[in-house]
Amino acid sequence: MPTLASPAYPTALGRRRFLKNLAGLTAAGLAARGTGSLGGAPAPEKRLRIVVDADTANEIDDAFALARALMEPRFQVEGITSAQWHTQEESPRDTVGLSQQLNEELLRVMNRADVPHPIGSNHPLVSAVKPQPSPAAQHIIRKALDTPAGEKLIVAILGPCTNLASAVLLEPAIIPKVSCHFIGLRHDPKQRLWSRDEFNTNNDPNALDTLLNTPGLEFHLMTASASQSLVFEKADVDRRLKGRGGVADFLVRLWDNYDRAWQRRVAPTKATWVMWDIALIAAIARPELANAVTLDAPPGNLKRPISVWVEIDANRMREDFWTAIERCLAGGR
Ligand SMILES: [Ca+2]
């Protein structure tokens, strides 16, 4: 995501009003999907096979989210794949290479180099029907085809949809074996309006169309509108993590050293950061921390129901992150 705040979206929407608006959406959706609700049923005990695909070098929230995923006992992480982020202001030529480099550093500091981490495509799809082959796409295909009968491979996409869309185009046999979880787009629950003016969407609009327009592909969406309320404060991060070694100091250093043109303009002090991508991982790991409804796919895409997280419990997601990292630093997973 390119901005620390999202002025284009009504962040000041009163909570009471928002929940009231939400009620109209949830009546049919939650009953139909059971994807999860605030204060709802506990997460299933069975470990979830998951590949996390991330444009890790674009912002710092990807690394926090990847760390959270690797710490989750309910996840069986089948791969960490890297993605491009070419539309960021003054982006370098090899954006996927930088994401890949950070993925490898994170796995090393977490002693998880055993997790497969193939590189993705450095270029977006040039059309919704032409894949961009990559080791990441091939890995997703292999892991999806390996999925036991009756189960699905979760692919959590924290950047553009390039790698999964390419996998689906290269091997359509994976479609019934994959559960796509994407963070992107914007949705206003009050107006029931969609917006594609969002960083992950813009980094590969063709790839998102490929996935949304694929009949039979299970699709879960965490909107940027919902995830933007998950904000971390640097002072809090320093107090909890600084000087504790390993992944803790890796994340602190990442925040300290982040220096990009857009951020110097929008948030020069870096005092807070929207942890967009943690919201998606937390919602998958603990469905009770977010509210999902069933909506039609956005206008212009195949008319079919998709599951959309329209609200998150940001306070509990923050606490969940700190609990997970404390468990990790104490020697547990
Ligand atoms: Ca991201």
What does this protein structure show overall?
- With 333 residues, this protein is of the alpha/beta class.
- It has a single domain (15-329), classed as Ribonucleoside hydrolase-like (Inosine-uridine Nucleoside N-ribohydrolase, Chain A), CATH 3.90.245.
- 40% of the residues lie in helices and 17% in strands.
- It is built from 13 helices and eleven strands.
- The strands form three sheets. The protein has a seven-stranded mixed β-sheet with strand order 2-1-3-4-7-11-10, with helices on both faces.
- Strand 10 (290-296) and strand 11 (305-312) form a beta hairpin.
- Helix 2 (61-71) runs parallel beside helix 12, helix 4 packs across helix 5 (162-170) and helix 12 packs across helix 13 (314-329).
- The protein is globular.
- Mean pLDDT is 89; it is low at 1-37.
- The chain binds calcium ion (CA).
- Calcium ion binds at residues 54-55, 58, 62, 158-159, 277.
